[in-house]
């Protein structure tokens, strides 16, 4: 079972900021901004494209939850992103939306 499937199954001590029947959210172990939250589907999909093809409504739900969490965190702006493939920085192959905020972000991203 992958690490995020284990988290979704409640096998680790991860504290959830949000959960419902389709998705859950928790803080990143290695935060890259004052707010760095991961929002994941409960179901296993290797990356966002696989999630989009198989469960498009869950993909859009991730963004609805991100918007709600950004509001709760009091963010004036935020960045949401998916890394796909190791060359783009993906290290956990269970689709997850990063929600980052609380500092300025450069463009283009590194
Ligand atoms: P990726 O690099 O795949 O886009 O993002 C994976 C993220 O998951 C990384 O930012 C990493 O810090 C985070 N992460 C990996 N393992 C764990 C874990 O067990 N708990 C939490 N909370 N975050 C994790
Ligand atoms: Zn998984």
Structural account:
It contains three helices and five strands. α2 (48-54) packs across α3 (56-72). The chain has a single domain, classed as HIT family, subunit A (2-Layer Sandwich), CATH 3.30.428.10. The protein has a five-stranded antiparallel sheet, with helices on one face. The protein has helices at 3-8, 48-54, 56-72; strands at residues 18-19, 23-27, 35-41, 78-81, 97-101. It has 110 residues and is of the alpha+beta class. The structure holds guanosine-5'-monophosphate and zinc ion.
Shape label? globular
How many structural domains does the protein architecture include? 1
Main sheet: strand order: 1-2-3-5-4
Number of helices: 3
CATH class identity = Alpha Beta
Helical/strand content category: alpha+beta
């Amino acid at each position: 079972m992958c690490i995020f499937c284990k988290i979704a199954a409640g096998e680790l001590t991860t504290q959830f900021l949000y959960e419902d029947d389709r998705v859950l959210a928790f803080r990143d172990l290695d935060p890259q901004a004052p707010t760095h939250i991961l929002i994941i589907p409960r179901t296993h999909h290797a990356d966002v494209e696989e999630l989009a093809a198989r469960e498009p409504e869950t993909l859009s739900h991730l963004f609805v939850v991100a918007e709600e969490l950004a509001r709760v965190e009091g963010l004036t702006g935020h960045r949401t992103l998916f890394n796909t493939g190791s060359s783009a920085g993906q290290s956990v192959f269970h689709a997850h939306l990063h929600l980052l905020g609380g500092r300025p972000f450069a463009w283009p991203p590194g």
